[in-house]
Design goal:
Largest sheet: 2 strands, antiparallel
Number of helices: 2
Radius of gyration: 21 Å
Helix content: 10-25%
Order of helices and strands: EEHH
Number of strands: 2
Distance between the termini: 24 Å
Length: about 100
Amino acid sequence: MDKLCVFCGEPLNEDGVCENIHSFKKMCLNCQFCDGMYCQNEDNKQKALEKMLETLKKESGGYSVKTLEIEPLPLKKPALKCSNWALSENIRVQLPALFV
């Protein structure tokens, strides 16, 4: 008997891989750090803050920056892959419903 894919039941190829695509994209839309359409990831926020401070240092105009407070803007492309992604609990709870 051929080996079958545990996700769709289709036969696996000779490498033991299903040729159907069974992957979810690591994106803001299913990330635990996405609050509505805003990224609340502290690592992302810190990286953005560091970039902003570096830019301000280059363009100081005779002044130094003592404090800088930032807040997230709405995400422009929430379906792009994110390197600081973690699966949302809400999405994890919905996964069993995908199995019929």
